[in-house]
Specification:
five-stranded mixed β-sheet; about 150 residues; 5 strands; binds tetrahydrodeoxyuridine
Length: about 150
């Protein structure tokens, strides 16, 4: 299973994530984050964190990127690059890991690229969220209802 991308694609995704971070709306935390998603067909969709005065309504960069990709018609995420310029190497929060897991490709892991000071660090959603609950569990329940009902 491939868990890295070409150097060129990696740089393109990281550049998109860094650009998105410049648009972060962060009046409360001053912690900018940008994310860029590579979809199944090679499209790149980015997002930044958006904070709200009622703090709990804040949405992370990764989730904003995923939701924009879904709104544009994409349902599989091959890779996501995350850039937090003031805290290099920042990884997606737990909620974003769950959301990313929802859209991982059926036949591959979802590659996560972290913008470290020393260069890109590759990991995967399976590594960041082991034993994940996901769509397959909903399918299993449906299967069980059909079988027993
Ligand atoms: N944040 C993200 O956007 N992505 C992450 O991976 C970590 C946290 C945001 C949420 C909030 O706006 C700020 O960073 C500080 O938590």
């Amino acid at each position: 299973m491939t868990t890295t991308l070409s150097g060129e694609l990696t740089e393109t995704l990281l550049a998109a994530a860094r650009t998105a971070a410049q648009n972060a709306y962060i009046p409360y935390s001053a912690f900018p984050v940008g994310a860029a998603i590579l979809t199944e067909d090679g499209s790149i969709v980015s997002g930044c964190n958006v904070e709200i005065a009622s703090y709990g309504l804040t949405v992370c960069a990764e989730r904003n990127a995923v939701f924009s990709a879904v709104a544009a018609g994409h349902k599989q995420v091959r890779a996501v690059a995350v850039s937090a310029p003031l805290a290099p190497g920042t990884t997606p929060c737990g909620a974003c890991r769950q959301v990313l897991n929802e859209f991982k490709p059926v036949d591959a892991d979802l590659v996560v690229i972290l913008d470290e000071k020393a260069g890109p660090r590759f990991t995967t959603i399976a590594a960041l969220l082991p034993d994940a609950f996901g769509p397959v569990d909903i399918d299993r329940a449906e299967e069980e209802r059909r079988r027993s009902g």
